[in-house]
Amino acid sequence: MSVVILVIHLMIAIALVGSVLLQRSEGGALGIGGGGGGGGFMSGRGAANALTRTTTILAFAFFVTSITLTLLARNADAPSSIFDGVAPTQQSGAPASGNQPASNAILPNIGAPKVPSGPEVPVSQ
Question: What are phi and psi of 13, to 5 degrees?
């Protein structure tokens, strides 16, 4: 079902982009397309009203299909918030003593040098 709605959603999106691009801009910056000539099959005012109405209907359909796809994609098992999946951290009131790193420290004790337990290179006799 979601595939059918997704295909309809994509067709509506393409039609919406087309209807917005067909509309005449208020400033008429470059004067491209739809000049003031009376040779068209619709008058300037009728075409503007039809394109505005078409754009409004397509925008409403786009929002409806977007919300429908969102509701279909939502999984009931998934957490509804990003904070629901985070386990709470336990904080103790006492600070860590000495050079011992805290149990939930991000970095281990960096300052302590590593002492090798034995020679790393075999010694020949």
Answer: -65, -45
The whole-angstrom separation of Cα 7 and Cα 52 is: 24
Helices 44-73 and 2-22, interaxial angle, to 10°? Answer: 150
- Tens of pLDDT, residue by residue over 24-70, are 776 654 555 555 554 455 556 666 788 889 999 999 999 999 999 98
Its domain, for residue 5, covers: 1-24+47-72
| C-alpha atoms less than 13 angstroms from C-alpha of 56 in its C-beta half-sphere | 6
d(CA 111, CA 100) in angstroms, rounded, equals 11
The total of structural domains in the chain comes to 1
pLDDT at 49: 84
For 36-95, give the DSSP string.
Answer: S-TTSSS-HHHHHHHHHHHHHHHHHHHHHHHHHHHHHH--SSS-SSTTTTSPPPP--SSP
- Angstrom distance (rounded) from CA 68 to CA 62: 10
Q: Would residue 17 count as lying in a domain?
A: yes
